[in-house]
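WARN  no MSA supplied for this record, continuing single-sequence
INFO  ligand: zinc ion
INFO  echoing inputs
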Amino acid sequence: MIVSYLCIVLGIMGSAFMIAFIGQDTRYTYAPPFTDHEMTMLFFLVVCVALAAAGVLGVIFSVVKKRQEDALQRIQNMGAEGVRKDVCPHCGLNLASGVKVCPRCGYKKEDS
Ligand SMILES: [Zn+2]
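INFO  complex generated
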């Protein structure tokens, strides 16, 4: 996650620097056909843009992954009828996992 943000910051800073550099580089036209120098500068610009893009994708990916993990966590905590497995569906008492009969109300928990 931190690496992704670092990529975005470095990529944007690098891109801005390269664009400014290319803008001031009046010796070259930066139009095809490219010289080696122009190719190198454009390559660095593409690398910086790609770095920023990779950072953005990394952040999106980690957010999506986190959401999926949260959703999975919720599903795993639910029983067949959408009732939390570790809570007595009758009286709402928190039950330790593996408890078959509620110690408060005597509700018999069915194995899912
Ligand atoms: Zn109960």
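The chain has a mean pLDDT of 83.
INFO  checksum written, moving to next record
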